[in-house]
Amino acid sequence: MKLLVFVMEDGVAEGTVNSLVERGFRVTQLASTGGFLRKGNTTLLVGVEDADVDRATEIVRKAAPGALAITLDLERYERV
Questions:
Q1: 50: closest CA among 13, 3, 10?
Q2: Residue 44 CB partners (closer than 8 Å, separation 6+)
Q3: Dihedrals φ, ψ of 69, to 5°?
C-alpha cells in the first residue's frame, strides 16, 4: 500500500479530484499554504495499492501538470 501526496495550484485541484474519483480512487483534499508554488495550494492524499501508483500519477500528470508528487510506503494503517 502507498500513500500518494500531490501538491498543486488551487485552480486545477477540483478537476484533478474529479478525474481521480471517476476512475475509482478515493481522495482527501486539503487546503495548504506555503512557499512551494508561491500561490494558493491544494494537497491531495490518495491511498492506493502498489499496482495503482503509476495509474494515479498519470491521471494527476494530465490534470495538473507541474504538480509535486510524493510516494510514501505505508507499512501499517488502521481505522481508529
A1: 3
A2: 4, 5, 6, 7, 8, 13, 16, 17, 20, 27, 28, 29, 30, 60
A3: -120, 130
The residue ranges of DSSP E strands in the chain, in sequence order, are 2-9, 27-32, 41-48, 68-73
Band the pLDDT of 36: cuts 50, 70, 90: low
pTM for the full predicted model:
0.89
Q: How far are the Cα atoms of 22, 42, 54, 57 from residue 66, in angstroms, in the given order?
A: 21, 13, 16, 12
